Amino acid sequence: MTRRAGDDPTTNGSDDHGASGLGRRRFLRTSAVVAGGALVAGCSSGGTNASANGSNASSNASGGANGTVGNASGNASTNGSVGIKSFRGSGPLVESRPPLKGPRIDDLPDLSGTLSVYLGGGEGGLYTQFLDLLQKMYPKFNVKLRTASSSQLANTLITEVESGSPKADVFWAVDLGALGVVANNDATMKLPKKVVKPVPKSFHPNNQWVGVAGRARSVPYNTNKLSANQIPNKVQKFTDTKQLQGSMGWAPTYGAFQSFITAMRLLHGKEQTKQWLKGMQGQNISEYPDEFLVSNAVADGELAAGFANHYYSLRVRAARPNAPIELAFTKGDAGALINAAGVEVIKGTERRQLAMNFIKHLLTAEAQEFFATRTFAYPMIPGVPPVGGLPTIDELNPPEIDLAKLSNLEPTLTLMRETGVL
After folding, report:
1. Where are the residues of the annotated region Disordered (predicted)?
2. pLDDT in tens, 156-165
3. Which one of 20, 243, 256, 374 is at 20 to 30 Å from 186 when CA atoms are compared?
4. pLDDT tens digit string along 16-65?
């Protein structure tokens, strides 16, 4: 296994995460990839340098290191009336977006009052921008924001609830595993069916949390080196594919990759997962610090293919529309995992009604268009399509797995260390 410059063979503790027929492989359309926004759900660790003192969401948060998304306030009015354009990103893709379906903000009660939100992972400021937009729409709505890593906030929330003094009303995390840990410690309130109804059941299995923005595992490949039919449709076949010998890349220290391996361990067991890791090492796979660099190396021709969350290829294409990179998706296995950012309401909150209304806003067509066109995430409601010619969630074939169990990383990290992957 080859390690690239800048690698640190330890876990980075990141919060990142993260089909049949045509749905398994859909080419990224060159004209449909330059959307406003550069960072996406699951690409930021969130860090621990954000506000922990209850400050309000910033009104000029940056879109991140790889571009900007413009003024988050868009053309929202201050009386609660708002249109899709206020939430939509910019670029050729946006100009040809189809009519959207789903719940609308104008059909919901106004947000009013102060809501304490613990935000696990800042998404380069994009989620903060969304909060800014809501506050500008609703002058009587105020967000008291605390940000840190999802794991840190999960532990804090559990401690606060156990002590009888919860300080958060809502936990919004880039990783469903962190939400699951809080829920499994009896620190959340059940979400009403009418709140989670727009979202597929797999993203609210027990109604303790609900997904708001998805990310799919994928195989970016260089079209000058491989054709679509040369990409295996099962992740287990990658160890035996001769065309991929010495020409693939992965990012094992990255949180999204570790969730992928955790899914494999849960689906196939420790021994089969160990053999797969060893098999990929036998393929002389190259290691990179993160999955954007994997995708970029594919586009450069340094690699023929790699393992990465879907949106990194879109980010590459946003910067280089003619880059020879497309996406393939495996079927029904860990390589086809769909994870998500999500939200839950904290047990003991005195603002239950406001918290539920806030979640309803996250699941409107407007909010889902924000996540799709500004963050390149998979929308959680069927009436809003993904960007870039991606297959819809329904067209993909993810494995049946309890996403909350992906938080149990320690056995995975032990396994990766035993095989020398970490």
Report:
1. 1-23, 81-106
2. 999 999 999 9
3. 256
4. 443 333 333 333 433 333 333 333 334 433 333 334 444 444 433 333 33
State the CATH architecture for 46-214+340-375.
Answer: 3-Layer(aba) Sandwich (3.40)
Average pLDDT over residues 340-356: 98
Q: Which residues contact 359 (CB under 8 A, 6 or more apart)?
A: 170, 191, 195, 210, 343, 345
Which tens digits make up the pLDDT trace of 368-380?
Answer: 999 999 889 999 9
Report if pTM > 0.85.
no
Which is nearest to 243 in space by CA: 231, 252, 254?
231
Q: Which of 177-186, 374-383, 391-400 has the lowest mean pLDDT?
A: 391-400
Tokens of 173: 């995390």
For the chain, give every residue range classified as CATH 3.40.190.10: 2-31+215-337+399-418, 46-214+340-375
**Residue 60 in contact with residue 146, Cβ under 8 Å?**
no
Q: Which helix or strand (DSSP H or E) is residue 276 part of?
A: helix 270-282
Rounded to an integer, what distance in angstroms lies between the CA atom of residue 325 and that of residue 213? 24
Closest CA to 365 of 105, 122, 150: 105
Q: Is 227 exposed, middle or buried (0-12, 13-18, 19+ CB in 10 A)?
A: exposed
